[in-house]
Amino acid sequence: MIRAYLDSSAFLKQFNEEIGSEVAHKLFVACENGKIELATSQWTIGETIAAIDRKFRRNEITEENRDASLRFLVELTDHLVHKKCLMIIPLDQNVVSASWKYITSDHLSADDAVQLLSYVITKSETFLASDKYLLDAIKQEGIDCYNIEDEKDAGKIIKTLEG
Q1: Of 14, 83, 15, 6, nearest in space to 38 by CA
Q2: Would you identify the CATH topology of the domain 2-162?
Q3: Which of 30, 73, 104, 125 is deepest in the core (most CB within 10 A)?
Q4: Cα separation of 94 and 111, whole Å?
Q5: DSSP secondary-structure letter at 91?
Q6: DSSP state of 16
């Protein structure tokens, strides 16, 4: 079974309707159905919560919508973790300090460095994101990666899920 790593920009799309959400929904359904294993960092969960709350603060969604999205996030991740088809890498001192090498070697932000190291820890086959700068750095590392917002890449992801 393939393991795909979702950085925050890809993970969020399951809980926030935007470009790339259709692919994210298909990934999570495939995960639920045992066709794919998903992996991410504990940091991703925090960033996703912050992004949803930011939409509320900007009056893009109601408080009720924010709270419903946050409940869905917690319930779905908990369900998939217990089902053992979603792996979440805990964020601890060792992960943070080990990620620092990517800040200077690949010129990544601290957030993106944690994502890259978490990908390595999970031994995932592919890295999914919509952050073009991060994806360029990931490609430089020789890692198979896809932009969840790019139509061509989205088609490849969906074809893999269906094939």
Answers
A1: 6
A2: Rossmann fold (3.40.50)
A3: 30
A4: 15
A5: -
A6: S
80: its two tokens? 């998939």
Q: 133 is written with which tokens? A: 């700068």
Beta bridge partners of 39: 5, 87
Instruction: Provide the residue type at 114 as one letter.
Output: V
Which stretches within the chain are classed as H helix? 8-11, 21-32, 42-57, 63-82, 93-105, 110-122, 132-140, 151-162
Angle formed by the axes of helices 110-122 and 93-105, nearest 10°: 110
The domain limits of the chain are 2-162
- Residue keyed to tokens 């393991």: 3
Q: 90: burial class by Cβ within 10 Å (0-12, 13-18, 19+)?
A: exposed
pTM given for the model:
0.92
